[in-house]
Specification:
Layout lengths: L2 H15 L3 H7 L2 H16 L6 H29 L3 H12 L5 H16 L3 H8 L12 H48 L11 H10 L1 H14 L3 H11 L9 H11 L3 E2 L2 E3 L2 E3 L3 E2 L8 H27 L1
Antiparallel strand pairs: 1-4, 2-3
Length: about 325
């Protein structure tokens, strides 16, 4: 089978139709299935009274169980598929729900509409669906910045990374990545409950995103009208980001759009003093969300071209 070609099929299907609501109503979605398994394992095995080492061990075991279940399912499905182009097409169909290109565009467009109309409360409500920070503390620039940062980071987590691992390892690769990313989003954040239980999930997620995050940054630079400026922003600021990976696509987007991103942010009653990315540029406004979405679409075209070249090798 040609796995890169299968990933082009998955990307095209998701970009064209997303995951249809009637299908979701009838069978749910693979991420919700993974989420249910993670929630069950976490409730059963995460005991706050255990020692940090015990919590870490329990979290590592739970994480490996979820990853094994996802990749094992992908492996079984792959062994049942025919070879050649029929198998490649079927692989693309099965990988389709594990890509989030259309939903990412929709979520950011849902922020851009009220923000462009001057409806700040509506924009805050929309951006709260895609970021964890306190939306009530965001002004117009803060809402636009949060949406653009989410667009940049999730371009890696939700699109480039799953397609990369699918191109490398077929259905087991993309399924394992989606399990890892879902684990990180559910238990990989730092809090009293997940400080130790989720540490393994967070570290595994960091490791599998090392290559895709850097590839995403390069794709944004390639799709930019000012690629050298985007590359300079990456080289200057990506390493200063709190995340070892998210700084690459965020710095590329900041440089490509000539905007500053990241910076201090509020989570409830806590302010996180994050450094600025592309600090000397102006803050984003409503029109910059549309510019960011156009850059995102060009990045998807560049990604499809890379996968196409990969498929031909």
């Amino acid at each position: 089978m040609n796995w890169p070609a299968a990933m082009i099929i998955a990307l095209a299907l998701d970009a064209l139709i997303g995951w249809p609501a009637p299908l979701y109503a009838h069978i749910g979605h693979p991420v919700t299935w993974l989420g249910a398994l993670i929630a069950r394992l976490e409730a059963r095995n995460n005991h706050p009274d255990d020692s940090p080492a015990q919590q870490f061990g329990a979290g590592l075991t739970a994480s490996l169980t979820v990853i094994a279940a996802a990749s094992g399912t992908g492996l079984v499905l792959m062994t049942l598929l025919p070879g050649g182009w029929p198998g490649t097409i079927l692989t693309g169909l099965l990988a389709w729900p594990l890509v989030a290109a259309r939903s990412m565009y929709t979520h950011v467009a849902d922020v851009a509409r009220p923000l462009g109309a001057g409806d700040l409360p509506g924009a805050r409500q929309a951006v709260s669906m895609i970021v964890g920070r306190d939306p009530a503390a965001l002004d117009q620039a803060g809402v636009a910045r949060a949406a653009l940062e989410s667009l940049a980071e999730n371009s890696s987590d939700g699109i480039v990374a799953p397609l990369f691992w699918g191109a490398v390892a077929g259905l087991p690769g993309i399924a394992a990545y989606k399990a890892i990313n879902t684990l990180d989003s559910m238990i990989g954040h730092r809090s009293d409950r997940y400080e130790y239980f989720g540490k393994a999930a967070a570290r595994i997620d960091d490791a599998v995103n090392l290559i895709p995050a850097r590839l995403t940054g390069l794709l944004f630079a390639l799709a930019s009208p000012r690629p050298l400026t985007a590359l300079r922003s990456i080289l200057r600021d990506a390493r200063h980001h709190r995340s070892p990976n998210a700084g690459w696509p965020e710095a590329a987007m900041a440089g490509a759009l000539h905007l500053r991103l990241s910076g201090p942010r509020s989570y409830g009653d806590r302010v996180s003093p994050e450094p600025w990315v592309n600090a000397d540029a102006p803050d984003p406004g409503p029109a910059d969300l549309r510019r960011g979405l156009r850059l995102y679409l060009r990045m998807l075209v560049a990604l499809a071209a890379v996968l196409g070249l990969w498929a031909l090798t």
